[in-house]
Amino acid sequence: MNISKYISDKISEVQTGTFTTSVTKIAIISIAAGIAIMIVSFAILEGFRNEIRDKIFSFGSHLQVSKYDTNNSYEGAPISKNIGLTDSIPGIKKIQPFARKTAIIKTDDEVLGVVLKGVGRDYDLSAMQQNLQEGELIAYNDSASSMDVLLSQTIASKLRLKVGDETIFYFIQNPPRARKMKVKGIFNTGLEEFDEVFVIGDIGLIRELNNWPDSLAGGIEIVLTDFNQIDQVAEQVFDEMNYDLQLEKITDRHAQLFDWLKLLQKNVIIFLVLIVFVATFNMVSTVFIMIIERINMIGVLKAVGATDAQIRQIFVFRGLRLTLKGLFWGNLIGLGFCALQYYFEFIPLDPENYYMDRVPISWNFGMILALNVITLVLTMLAILIPAAMVARIKPVKAIKFD
């Protein structure tokens, strides 16, 4: 039997009604509140980052290859859709062609300039599927170009269009051409730079308008297996592609959004460091008080032959017990709150300011485990500070202490 643990358990049983009881409750509450806030903060931060990134990826993949051009127009010179990178570079999940075409949408009452982004049946529209508010994705034809388009909620509201309506697209070229298009679905990303400009359609229509064969596209989008490897894969793609092509990372194309997300993460980390500091400081204070209240006991234990290490272990076990209680309640509260928000979405947001209509939650159990381990380790290390004062206590003075 471990005598230090036995004495620690007995102290816990007889401390009811003492000043230490109130202090230990405060320590448990501070740890519970700290871990709960950290879990909720990281879950919301990761959810927010993932939500924004998914919305950005719905309009562009991780890497984009296009013809080198000093003109910053939406339309560019065509390139071959077969650039031969899939087999030679690890980390590439999919290569998909696209094309853009500027157009003017005219209804009976309104006129609006847009950019039609053409994609093929093999284009991954799963991210766009999540943004759909009404209708469905484009239906492709085997023999002819599809006349279906996806409009944003912003464009549809301005033009007073709804799913199933037909409208005229006037394409800006020489000579100008017009096509009657059908609204197949309405999406909403919450990102103004996309919702106010882009319309999703069939790349076959753009090839037809530009007199391109099926082997050409306006550009190539590269989807990666791991977004975190974007810099390494981009270097390899750049080394292998032709000199007349240019490569652009999505983090550069939308630098402001990604810089904002990085800044948000830094602020949250600073906030969480302060929370951990407060929790560990409270535990140090609690152990100090427990030692002072047990000065007589320490003196008696030393008088009967107990070592300083054994006495320190008594308070370390006591601190560990309090920390584990705090972690248990903190995880219960934090995970419970996240589960309620994840399934019931009871906290709404203003889409105009936050790009989404509810507080997002992302489940990262590896991060949750890391938060618990870090809190436990730092708290236990902090407990060693007051426990070290046991060696300075003299048995004679301790027994007489009142």
From TrEMBL:
The keyword Membrane is annotated on this UniProt entry: yes
Every ABC3 transporter permease C-terminal domain range: 269-395
Main location: membrane
Domain called MacB-like periplasmic core: residue spans: 26-237
Transmembrane helix in keyword set: yes
Membrane topology, as annotated: Multi-pass membrane protein
Keyword terms, alphabetized: Cell membrane, Membrane, Transmembrane, Transmembrane helix
Segments traversing the membrane: 26-45, 268-291, 327-344, 364-391
Subcellular location: Cell membrane
Annotated family: Belongs to the ABC-4 integral membrane protein family. LolC/E subfamily.
Protein's recorded name: ABC transporter permease
Taxonomic lineage: Bacteria, Pseudomonadati, Bacteroidota, Cytophagia, Cytophagales
